[in-house]
Design goal:
The chain is an alpha/beta fold. It is about 40% helix and about 15% strand. It contains six helices and six strands. The longest helix has 25 residues. The radius of gyration is 15 Å and the shape is globular. It starts with a strand and ends with a helix. The structure holds flavin mononucleotide.
Length: about 180
């Protein structure tokens, strides 16, 4: 069972937010966590559209999330909030699936003007699943280069991302020690 599950909420196959999520996953693997990735694109469109709660792609995803010690949820900003497809996926998950878990939210947007989408949209959504959301990370497109090994160009943004990741890792470790005490 993976200790950390990373969920990508972008419908885009060449996604900026997913690239950054991959980088964060690498940082956590360097700290010896096991990390697995889930994408909204793993769920068939017909399942999302018909709200097929019992489809194996949904029940498997829910089991993986429930078994994790910590979860990272990333989304592009779409119309000042998270992507609609991420919401369609989250609507299918049990309402306590993130209970007692540290959750690191990440959003990428074209404009700094929608930074508060983290606080007004994504974090309240994660709270409905009973997750403990951290402050979170917001990056604008101009500081992301998907083709680089380190995809965050700006030093301050990268340092914030690394600090949030380290804090998340510490909370996951504590969570792990509590359940194995
Ligand atoms: C349909 C759509 C709506 C968007 N709406 C916003 C928006 O309201 N505010 C914003 O800052 N960026 C907006 N953007 C830009 C994306 O949030 C940004 O390019 C993001 O990094 C894309 O992430 P992705 O490559 O992971 O999908 C929008 C992009 C699309 C395609």
């Amino acid at each position: 069972m993976s200790e950390i599950v990373i969920i990508s909420g972008s419908p885009n196959v060449a996604s900026r937010s997913e690239r950054v999520l991959g980088y964060i996953g690498g940082l956590l693997e360097d700290k010896h966590f096991t990390v697995t990735h889930l994408s909204v694109r793993d769920i068939p469109a017909a399942v999302l559209f018909s709200a097929d709660f019992s489809h194996p792609s949904v029940t498997d995803a829910a089991a993986r999330i429930r078994g994790a010690k910590g979860v990272i949820v990333g989304s592009p900003v779409y119309k000042a909030a998270y992507s609609g497809v991420l919401k369609a996926f989250i609507d299918l998950l049990p309402q306590d699936v993130l209970e007692s878990k540290p959750v690191l939210p990440l959003m990428t947007g074209g404009s700094p003007g929608h930074l508060l989408a983290l606080d007004y949209a994504l974090k309240p959504l994660l709270s409905t699943l009973k997750g403990h959301a951290l402050k979170g990370i917001y990056l604008t497109d101009d500081v992301i280069d998907k083709n680089l090994d380190i995809p965050v160009l700006d030093g301050d943004c990268l340092s914030r991302l690394e600090k949030q990741t380290a804090y998340f890792a510490e909370l996951v470790r504590r969570q792990h020690s509590r359940t194995h005490a």
